[in-house]
Amino acid sequence: MIEQLHIDGVFLITPKKFGDDRGFFSETFSKKVLEQAGIMQEFVQDNQSLSVEQGVVRGLHFQTPPHAQDKLVRVTRGSILDIAVDIRKGSKTFGQHVAVELSAENWKQLLVPKGFAHGFCTLTPNTEVQYKVTDYYAPECDKGLAWDDAALGIEWPITVSKAILSTKDMAHPTLKELPDYFTFSG
Description:
Blueprint: E1 2-4, E2 11-13, E3 17-20, E4 23-26, H1 31-36, E5 45-51, E6 57-63, E7 71-77, E8 79-86, E9 88-89, E10 97-103, E11 109-112, E12 116-122, E13 127-133, E14 142-144, E15 182-183
């Protein structure tokens, strides 16, 4: 099942899962199924992270052009609150976000398009997140947005004082301070 969320270009995808007494089988990615829904991204790299503690916040991250990335995010162990923030200047949804719980149990995936900052907070210990991207990592294009910017209105499941972040993620600018890396054209 593929569902367009309230911000254009952001999709919630739930692959079919077939189970029996042995376990289950699922096609977790099918280019053909996505293309039939009008999703034409060409993924070139898979990434995986493990967050040992509950309350780990990763993000909000994005890559700028010419190495901007679409992401297809899923959880293979544990659960997260996954966030995508529209940072396309001129978009009618600029600064708005989508928040979705992704878990190994609910089997949902979030498609985060270029022009969005992406991040998540782990809801359980030992959470593994896997995601596909449409461009390779480019350190010179690696940017971020302050996860706790009040202007974003994100209801994180953790307080600022309890969040576990990298030093890098603590230093990102707010939306107001963010340069115009992306411009909406649509």
